[in-house]
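Subgroup meeting minutes
Present: P.N., E.W., G.H.
Scribe: E.W.

1. P.N. recapped why we're keeping a running log of single-chain structure predictions: easier to compare across weeks, and new members can see raw inputs and outputs side by side.
2. G.H. added today's entry (607 aa).
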Amino acid sequence: NTVACNSNSSSVVTCDASAAFSVSPCGPGRRCQGNGQCVVYSTCTVTGPTVIDFNGHVSSVQDRCAYTLMSAAGLQLLATFQERRRKDVSFLERVILRLDGSGVDIHLGQGGNVQLNHTTLRLNSSAQLIHGVELSKDKSRVTAKVTFSNYSTSILFDGTTAQIHVKGPGSLQGLCVNSSSLSEVRLSEFSSSSCETQYSEPADGRIDCTMMTARCNLLKEAPFTSCHSHVDPEPHVTACTSVLCLYPAGDGLRCQFLEVYAQACSLHSNHTLEGWRSKASCSPPQDLCQDTSCSAHEFCGEDMSGRPRCLCRAGFASKYRTRGALGDPTVCRENSASVSLAACLLAEKGINHSVLHLNDHTCTGQMDEKTHMVTFGFNTSKPCGTVISVAKNKIIYSNTIKTDNSSTSGPISRQSLVNVNFSCFYSQPDVKSMSFKVKGGTVMQQIISGSWNYSLSMSMCADLACTQPIDFSKGVQLDQTIYMSIETDGLDGNLINMKTESCWATNNENGNGGLRYDLVKNGCSNPQDSTVMIIPNGKGTGSILVFRMFQFRGNNNKIFLHCKMKLCLKSSPSCQQTCQRRGRKKRSVRPDYEDENPAFVTVALGP
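Output recorded in log:
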């Protein structure tokens, strides 16, 4: 028998010994080679969420998982998908060449980034041979070529579209062979545990589907008609309309599907389509995001001005957009405050993070190179123009992330003005629930103040330095000197003081009933009792109350001490208490009532 190919290599022509003539079509995605054998000669196109397989069938990836595009002897092609501007539309994110038996993975990523396992490769237009794979990069895409004994493959990837062209008789499997087999070729290795979750979002009212369909149908018109005999336009039209009727035509999508078809034509026929760019108003391809490195929650796209920027993926941005925020809540700890803004959220609004600063222009944000979160902060040693104010029951430290008109010259500005206020505060101590047990000792209360916390501790001591706590088990003698230490931890001692507003004794736990004797009133020791003193503890945010032990006449020997404390700014006149002393008056059991209901500390003394 004599075997040959027909004129367009679509069929095998056989002439047997009896001169009988037969023609056997090779079928979709196959060509006849010179030896009369039908081999794979086709292109699989993965663009955005759509897959046009070797047979021209179209499917769409609806989730954010990884898939096997093609599996053949010696090579696996894998792909990962992620959302961009919408949670319900996924885009091709990365292509991975896995060489069998060698432990080699070559990752073709965003921005023209190529990695050998986890090492970044430096590529240019001159091909480099890496583990048998020929790699090169130009201004628009990365190309990888690999040749085995019975087939060859070339992969073109521009960050959004991968075109896989295969020649040879190899037995193939994967999404490019049967695009309807999504569940069978899904990979767990490069997929998150929640990757199969699918989302729905409201239709984008700005999209004119009729107009987009007309644009996609340009593939059915000249000059694309010259390639119809090589590449069926229908799958490409279907892919085009399915995306552009749902997803905004930014980030180069307006011309992407036309470009993909023209490239497929070139791969199949060595024929270059002419004139289509001017008809469709499309510029020559150029990966504007090349060498742009975005974080895991970002993608490279066009900002409001059409320039390439790292923008937020919809899933990441949704938690901020629902509350109109540009970043995370304020973090307050250890007399410091910080807030982190997402650079991609700023980019969406046309804001360059590098022009932002606090009230003090020298205090700028620090970007995390991995997450691209920009953090602004201040502390007690570097206040950055922080404004301190008193409001109701709080002392507030506030600052502002801002731009100003001086960042640009001339009468106009194209940079959005920013004013993001953030603050931390100390709240006045609410100590109604805090009390010493009968046996005395030390008590501490954690004050939860918005985000800033501090502790208030009080202890009864036998000496001024408070090195010896009182041993209540041995009893307390009348006229014995008592030292009650009031200390705080976690306050800004340079600016804030904890002031003892009042301390008084009663014969019951109710601080407002029964017999009462004042030790401290209006921030001053009782001028009629010379044994009472308030002494600063030398640490800036506390004091020591000194008094001599007493008891109420005609009552049992148990007394209760109550104190009301208040935070104040040291610069405030009310914090600089001036007290006048008068002569000593004999202690009395006559109750001295006040019309107030303060927050208080209760100390019970007695057996």
